[in-house]
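Q: Could you predict the 3D structure of DNA-(apurinic or apyrimidinic site) lyase?
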Amino acid sequence: MPEGHTIHRLATRHRELFAGRRVRVSSPQGRFAEGAKAVDGKVLTDTSAVGKHLLHHYGDDLAVHVHLGLYGKFTDGTGKPPPVVGEVRLRMTGGRRWLDLRGPAACEVLDPMGVDLLRSRLGPDPLNDDSDPARAYEKISRSTRPLASVLLDQSVVAGGGLIFVLETLFRAGIRPTAPARTLTPAAWSSLWTDLRALMKEAVEKGRIDTVHSAHTPEAMRRPPRVDRHGGEVYVYRRTGQPCLICGTPVSSGTLGGRNSYWCEECQS
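A: Sure. Here are the predicted structure tokens for DNA-(apurinic or apyrimidinic site) lyase:
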């Protein structure tokens, strides 16, 4: 599932393509036919992202809400739209630009109350500058669950996925299994600041890199990481490989049904 930085990049991309334009919206697949009809021919005024949720805003206060889930994918281009191939849930065209959406977990039209309800069930998004990290800490400080599991809960922190959470915990020297309520306010403030910085960098670069400059392939004279997720990381999907800082083999296990990775020495 795409992490929050990908959704923010999509919001920016779609704003550049269509904001301020009157767009045609259809649902070749048919599953979004009524929703497409509600916004077809209207002006797309803006786009936004909160956590892993994308919103297309229209001038009459309607918004198309998209959650990509595991299989959702956007494609776009210029010129005449290509022939429909596969199950295209949503097609948008305007100003000789086109956009297709396939396989999302959610694609629906929301009124202002619906948008407010969506935002209210999500925690603060590190990529939104008006987010209040204190909202998240209220829940963190009361939970006996493992810290990694709590931080992955989108109602606590919106947008951070497994890579960001595990890598931020490594950089802070905190074990993923530590009870959430043992995290101090000062430690949470540092975690939040680091998470924001890593996610903002990922928005700019389009990939997740979490290692400090001293631990890059160039600095350490080591081969670049080869992984379908890309990016240079400390522990994520590096089971058994030496920690880039202390050399201890990276450990892994299952935590709340999710794979978890950590260094026994650096996160003791």
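Q: Anything worth pointing out?
A: The chain has two domains: 4-120, 133-262.
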